[in-house]
Amino acid sequence: LTILLGGLGGEKAILNDMTTGAASDIDRTYTIINSMMNIGAFGFEYYKNERKSYGEVDDISDYTRRLREQKIASIFDECLSRATQIISDNKQIYEILIEELLKERRLSSERISQLFKDNCIK
Fold first, then answer.
1. 93 in Cβ contact with 115 (< 8 Å)
2. How far apart, in Å, are the Cα atoms of 52 and each of 37, 40, 56, 89, 118?
3. Are residues 115 and 100 in contact, defined by beta-carbon separation less than 8 angstroms?
4. Which of 11, 27, 76, 116 could make an SS bond with 121 (beta carbons 3.0 to 4.6 A apart)?
5. Is the sign of the CA dihedral 74, 45, 48, 8 positive or negative?
6. Are 1 and 32 in contact (CB under 8 A)?
7. 120 — alpha (psi -120 to 50), left (phi > 0) or beta?
8. Are 97 and 112 in contact (CB under 8 A)?
9. Local structure of 51: helix, strand or coil
């Protein structure tokens, strides 16, 4: 989820703004977290919808729905914060890659690896 929110985290860390460019990533992240809740994965049993029979889902109470939405928002915010922090912590290589891209117009994976090595980034 953190990787999926990397683009949005980059916008926050580098531009100090968020655009609509990451809308698809936001939607996919929400869908994944919601699915985790629905199947009771990762300890979210309490937030899971109850099934009457295969494919048929009971409505959940407004209280449980609010709890689910709060939990989804909490997970989303935690992952976005982590993505933003990772990018903020690595702004140096970001700037180096931009400079190199502007100079060379394209970078091979070997050149990127070399830039990381040259700048002591693993």
1. yes
2. 17, 15, 6, 48, 59
3. yes
4. 116
5. positive
6. yes
7. left
8. yes
9. strand
pLDDT bucket at 78, cuts 50 / 70 / 90: very high
Q: CA–CA separation, 9 vs 18, rounded Å? A: 8
Q: Which two tokens stand for residue 39?
A: 């199947």
Report the length, in residues, of the chain. Answer: 122
**Core vs surface per residue 25-59: b (16+ CB within 10 A) or e:** bbeebeeebeebbeeeeeebeebbeeeeeeeeeee
* pLDDT at residue 108, rounded to an integer: 93
Amino acid at 84: T
Say how far apart CA 103 and CA 97 lie, in whole Å: 10
Q: What six digits make up the tokens of 53?
A: 């029979």
